[in-house]
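agent: user wants the full assembly modeled, not chains individually. Plan: 1) parse entity lines 2) check alphabet per entity 3) run joint structure prediction 4) return tokens. Steps 1-2 passed, two entities, 412 residues total. Proceeding.
--- entities ---
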Amino acid sequence: MAASAPDEKKTPRTEKGRRTLRKLLDAAAGEFGDHGFHEASISSITRRAGVALGTFYTYFDSKDEIFRALVADMSESVKRAAREAIAPEMGALEVERAALEAFLRFAGEHKEVYRIIDEAEFVDPRSYRMHYETVGARIIERLEKGGDSGAMREGLGEIEAWALMGMNVFLGLRYAIWRGEGDPDAAEVAEAANRMLQSGIGRSTD
Amino acid sequence: MAASAPDEKKTPRTEKGRRTLRKLLDAAAGEFGDHGFHEASISSITRRAGVALGTFYTYFDSKDEIFRALVADMSESVKRAAREAIAPEMGALEVERAALEAFLRFAGEHKEVYRIIDEAEFVDPRSYRMHYETVGARIIERLEKGGDSGAMREGLGEIEAWALMGMNVFLGLRYAIWRGEGDPDAAEVAEAANRMLQSGIGRSTD
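--- prediction returned ---
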């Protein structure tokens, strides 16, 4: 983990520094999202960010390094989007519904998130794996809480967490990234997925 | 669709031709799986296949073309692996269990399948999307059959199909590609996922 953390001396200490870093990461998201890692260039990123080329090197050593920082940043944004949609009074299944709906909206507004995280599989496999392992670990915690509260059955773990993560990722791919006219909206998709999560797709026997 | 179908004059008409094409595709799977699209070369593929460089061009015009053919071929192999595991007497939910177990075994034995299909998102986005849309359409059919037979609830459709596809893809990523020591085997993973599919993860109220 240490190796992928930003160099300490490069972590901005001032508000202005933090704003510049934010501009660079947003510009990188646009540049990598539009052109992919290999076609993207540091000079295009600084041009998009409206900062001098030299400023880039105050924060990052290379294109690889800003890409890695961007994957971590996007991973964090996805987490934040889901977390902001969750209220303390929600039950464990309602939390999953709200988190998915928020994720679908986030992905619809930031379509580059799929391309960038997916490209990490090739550009920076460690970041790619860390992203999913981190999300998976967070879901395991929620499922355990759900078991404790009585909203979910007990004994849920990693298998169910990865299954749930896969559901969410693919629903985002289909209904946010590849969204077509007349497709159900984020609330409808999250509702249907939540019903499936709650009680499955088997015919109930009563 | 027509544009991605192999050139008719290049479709082998003899058994020997079909064997050579198979050798080229298998060699391409190894080469693209080991090195990725950009680092892979036609000469390495023919060397792996044990055929003359010129032979390559009897079947494909370019590295792009064999990559595209390989994605279609892998898509077909994944389908075949699932289909071979399914017996006519199985109920709709048992079909899903068997198909997932077969897919997990297939992915464990052909780990390059993830890297190659995932790289198609960047090398040949149309093949990438077509792969998932084709699998999704096949799952929709199975869910409809499940509704008709009474094993699954009625009204299942594209949302549930993409959710199910995502479950399977991510369980393969975690338990076939990133498999660790002591992890549950394909049968156990498929069993747990199938329980989730059948009746969800909510606490049953009876």
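agent: reporting back. Chain A touches chain B through 49 residues (CB under 8 Å). The mean pLDDT of chain A is 93.
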